[in-house]
């Protein structure tokens, strides 16, 4: 009887800690406190907590049983130590969810799964504030654990026969299995069981982080075995895809008046939202220099990214790749040799191609992708002198700009110089700048800092004789939730600047504001057209913007998508944002992005060839 009481105490402590993790998540993640939703989260979360807690109890009982055979010493302290290790493990996963939700608006998911391979790089994304939080968090958990353990007398010593322990374990295992599964119901427990209200943050908080972590690991294997987006028959899927991809009549657009092959400089800014421009927010320009270029540039007013990650944006702009909520084509190194890109056209025309980045291109398979598609030179942080003050992720943009000026002067025409900036990436720890507790202030400060560096870059390059024969394209790899903490499914979240600037831009197009929907993955096909290159060196979904095609953009986020056409904007989250399936028109509209995801997932899994005739 004493042993059962002891196990019940352990179960109680475990359940308490699950709720502590949940409360900390809500304190740091919810915009405002609502008592009824808070209570609902604790109650709804209990169903997830109980399954994990019973699994922990089984592990502890097994450990308790085993150490009783191998030592004649009092083993209760060893048992308590093992319990503490399990608690810390759960605390680590919960802390990861808190930080992920802050930056990605999601907890651990299949999309985050590949990043586990590079934990050290992930830690560099953590700001000083988050580092202090983690230290405080684990200190709090440690103190609370031993305080509660002492109060609950988990050091208690008692005797129990070995077969009695075994009998308890045999009874606990099926109970734990049923609790994890959700009982005898037909469909096992899933994330949707956390959907108890309309507030996404409170819904997500109800999901036990440890349960979700292992659920994701299992679901990742399922993804490789079957198409997780299959909602249509293959026939209907192809009908919808072909409708969207139907070619339109080509417009006669002559942006440039070059007499020879121009140099191309592609400046890909890290996470700069177009809403920082006054032309969009109607109030203040946080990048006054860059916005001043619009008067002499061709500007795409409604450009949208394919996703929210750097590797997604790069693959879109270079290969015309769309993104999915989970894996992408570039995630699988074995498929990289099949991925075409606009660099093929450049290499044919004897362009020297160079990629320059102040961070580490090993992250997210970027180096493998960039090398495979044919860059002659890839420079990253390992190529630079690191004596300068570093950010946690690499070289501040002021030193990147110095390197770009140097490379621009050295390169012989024609060349394609592609750079990816860094300082507008979390944690915005630019040396010498102010530190604010407000993420919005930190973001806007970093955006203005980048603008100043671009001003320096252009002022230096303008004195070079190659400047007049260069096309500058300034854009962003993806949007950002700042400056106004945009919802993950809002179009503002994926709005990016897209500027084409050149001294050889024909006068009729200087200061032109293109209000047609521009999809990031159409960039390579569009650039090929503007430069007079006829061959197709990009993936199926990249099309020339200057045609009468059916326009759409699809921006993927974890568990869902935002799909826009000239006349509509719809979003769907596979877990949190169900739509009215009784509305036939709405179902028809969603069939288009669903067909795209189904097609893309087949490509990623190798069911459908990447290269098509």
Structural overview:
The protein has 613 residues and is an alpha/beta fold. It folds into two domains: 224 residues, no CATH class; 356 residues, Alkaline Phosphatase, subunit A. The chain has 18 helices and twelve strands. The strands form two sheets. Strands 1, 2, 3, 4, 5, 6, 7, 8 and 9 form a nine-stranded mixed β-sheet that branches. A three-stranded antiparallel β-sheet has the order 10-11-12, covered by helices on one side. A hairpin with a 2-residue loop joins strand 10 and strand 11. It is globular and about 90 Å long. The mean pLDDT is 87.
SS field, number of helical segments? 18
CATH superfamily of the largest domain: Alkaline Phosphatase, subunit A
Count of beta strands? 12
Helix content: 40-55%
CATH top level assignment of the largest domain: Alpha Beta
Q: Major sheet: size, sense and barrel closure?
A: 9 strands, mixed
* Unreliable residue stretches: none
Estimate what percentage of residues fall within beta strands: 5-15%
List keywords for this structure.
613 residues, alpha/beta, Alkaline Phosphatase, subunit A, 2 domains, 9-stranded mixed beta sheet, 3-stranded antiparallel beta sheet, 45% helix, globular
Secondary structure blueprint with pairings:
Blueprint: H1 2-29, H2 35-70, H3 76-104, H4 119-123, H5 128-151, H6 162-181, H7 200-205, H8 209-225, H9 234-244, E1 263-269, H10 278-281, H11 288-292, E2 297-304, H12 310-319, H13 343-348, E3 352-357, H14 366-373, E4 377-379, H15 397-410, E5 415-420, H16 439-461, E6 470-476, E7 495-496, E8 498-501, E9 512-519, H17 523-530, E10 552-557, E11 560-565, E12 569-573, H18 584-605
Parallel strand pairs: 1-5, 1-6, 2-9, 3-4, 3-5
Antiparallel strand pairs: 2-7, 2-8, 6-8, 10-11, 11-12
